[in-house]
C-alpha cells in the first residue's frame, strides 16, 4: 500500500549522520561490517518494542526493514543483531496494530510480511514464522485470486490489479515451494501467475515492468515505472528458478535489471522513479525510499545468482546513490529543505540495503 500523507507525522529535521556510505571504495570487510552494524543499531534506536515496529515508518515499510535486518544478520551471523527483533515484532506488531496474523486489506502489504517471515524462518528455523507466511499465502489464494484481468487483486475491495501484488505473489509462492512439503502446489501457483504477468504483458518494450493493468480501460497496461516493480520480480524469478528450473527465468530477470540500470539511473548515477510527478503525487516521496531499497536488495540477489558484477551497486552505475545523493534521488520533493524525519528513517534502511548489496 502506498502511504497517504495523512498518516505521516509532522516533519522534523534529522541530520543524516552515521549512515554507511556505500561509495564503492574498497573499505575492507571489517570496516563494512562495522558500518552496517552501527547503522543497524541506529535503526534500532527507532524501534518501538511495545509495537514491534519502527517509529513513523509505515506498515509495509516495516516489513521491509525486517528484511534489511535479516540481510544484515546473514551478512554478519555473529553480530546477533536481530535475535530479539523477530519474536518481539511477531508478538507485538499483529496485536498492537489491529492486523491479526499480519493481515490487512492490501494483499501487497500482506505479502511483504510473508517475505519478512520467510527470512525469519531461514534465520531461526522456527516453524511459526514459516506458518505465518504460509497462512498469508493461503489467504491470498482463497480471497485474492481470479482478478478481472487475470492474476491477483491488489486489495480486498478488488479495486486494482497491480504488478507489485502479482510479483509478490509469485515470490512468496516460489519461496514456499522451496521450504514446504507441498512443493508442486506452490510451483503451480507461481508459474500460473508468472504466465499472466508475462502475457498481460507487464514487461514493456523498453524492458521495464509497468505498474499494472486498468480494469476500466479493458485491461490495458498503464501507470508509472517504479523501481520496486523492477526489483520484486527479480527475486521472484531467482526463487522460482530454484524451485522449478527454466532456462528463460534468469535471462528474463537480467533483461529487466539491464533496462532498469540503463533507464532509471541518470548520468550522475542517481536512481529515479519514472513517469511520476512528485508535485501531483507527493506520497511517492515517502514510499520512494522503500521502493529503491527493494530494488537494490533484489538487484544484489541477482548479482549473486548470475555472478555478475554488473548488478552490484558498487559498480559505477549506482554507487553515487548514497548520503545526500540518495536524499535527492529518492525524495526530490524534499531535496531543497530539511529531510523529512519519516523519509530519513526509511532512507536509513535503504542505505543499509546499499551497503549490504556491496560485496561484504
Ligand atoms: C477462482 O476460481 C476458481 C475456479 O472457478 C474457484 O475454485 C476459486 O474459488 C476462485 N477463487 C476466488 C478467490 O474467487
Ligand atoms: C519456461 O518458461 C517459459 C516462460 O514462462 C514458458 O513459456 C515455458 O513453457 C517454460 N518451459 C518449461 C519447460 O516449462
Ligand atoms: C507536475 O505537475 C504539475 C501540476 O500539474 C505541473 O505544474 C508540473 O510541471 C509537473 N512537473 C513535471 C516535472 O512534470
TrEMBL record:
SUPFAM superfamilies according to UniProt: Six-hairpin glycosidases
Give any GO molecular function from the UniProt entry: hydrolase activity
Among the GO biological process terms of this entry, one is:
carbohydrate metabolic process
Superkingdom per UniProt:
Eukaryota
Under InterPro entries, the record lists: 6-hairpin_glycosidase_sf, Glyco_hydro_76, MUG_Protein
Keywords assigned by UniProt?
Hydrolase, Signal
**Signal sequence, start to end:** 1-24
Its name, as the record gives it, is Glycoside hydrolase family 76 protein
Q: Which organism is it from?
A: Aulographum hederae CBS 113979
